Please model this.
Amino acid sequence: MKIVPRRRRTHEPHPFLRNMESKTWLALLEDLLRL
Model:
């Protein structure tokens, strides 16, 4: 899964990332590092 979309219409962060909580985002990053 690619988090960053290929077509960048605006410089604003992806809405999906906005909806996610910071704790959840950090947890996902930790899981990726573990893999």
About this structure: The mean pLDDT is 71. The radius of gyration is 11 Å.
